[in-house]
Amino acid sequence: MRVQEGGSAEPLLVLLHGLGATGDVWEAWRPLLAKRWPGRWVAPDLPGHGGSPPLDAYTFDGFAAAVAGIVPPGDRVVVLGHSLGGVVGLALASGRFPVPVQAVIGLGIKVVWTGEDLDRAQALARRPLAWFASRDEAAARYLRVSGLAGLLPAGDPAVDAGLREQEGQWRLAMDPGTFAVGAPDMAQLLAESQAPVTLARGEHDPMNTGEQLAQLGAPTVTLPGLGHNAHVENPGLSIALLDSHR
Fold first, then answer.
1. pLDDT of residue 246
2. In the beta sheet, which residues pair with residue 197?
3. Burial status of residue 71 (CB atoms within 10 A of its CB: 0-12, 13-18, 19 or more)
4. Distance CA 110, CA 186 (A)
5. How far, in Å, CA of 152 to CA of 22, rounded?
6. Per-residue pLDDT at 232
């Protein structure tokens, strides 16, 4: 797996990006982590994203197993995951993996899925790789798929991490099959978690509502004025989610 990291000592902070993105979405957190996080941090590209190889089939446990493979044995771990990454963090805390997770913060998780949502995701998973004649076209597609349109400029290095070039043509680095991971069983994931869980959302996140999160029974936090990619929109406000776990 492609992994970015920094800091030293414990606890280990595992930062997990959302569907379609890469670990580069945490780039603006680096100087903040240096000041506000006492231990190490790692930000992997999840399988099938960025520079990490694909899986034969995508499940939340499959993603979690890959992440568990980059955590040194015995390290105390706090997981902050966005969207898909938040679900992977919950799976990682299930006790099915040799990772002593101390806390999970799930930011922007979509917790209610309709049949139409699932059908659309399956259709996207079956699409063949799309090739583009220019980097600009591919970058525009990447920004839409990752939900980062309007948040990062097309020329940002983080966009390059989500693209591949071959013989003058461009495509997204992500495996379309990742869309087939499906909907999480949030009630079961929360019941199985061996660590305390906080569910967070941006105030204007269209992927969930405060009521939907509250019904799950876990402590919830709303980040005022922010949307689905709150960690990219305002790193300084979002990193406060870690304050009680330092």
1. 75
2. 104
3. buried
4. 10
5. 13
6. 96
Query: What is the distance, to the nearest Å, from the Cα of residue 113 to the centroid of all Cα atoms in its chain?
Result: 18
Distance of alpha carbon 207 from alpha carbon 19, whole angstroms: 13
Nearest CA to 43 out of 4, 69, 81 is that of 4
CA dihedral 201, 202, 205, 211 (to 10 degrees): 50
**pLDDT for the residue 198:** 97
Task: Give CA angle at 67 (71, 196), nearest 5°.
Answer: 80
Beta strands in 85-151 (DSSP E): 101-107
Q: How many other C-beta atoms are found inside a 10 Å radius of the C-beta of residue 222?
A: 16
Residues of the chain whose pLDDT is less than 70?
A: none
Cβ atoms within 10 Å of 243's Cβ, excluding its own:
8
Q: What does the alpha-carbon distance between residue 154 and residue 71 come to, in Å, rounded to a whole number?
A: 32
Entry pTM = 0.95
CA 73 to CA 198: how far, in whole Å? 24
Contact of 22 with 30, CB cutoff 8 Å: no
Amino acid 72: pLDDT: 87
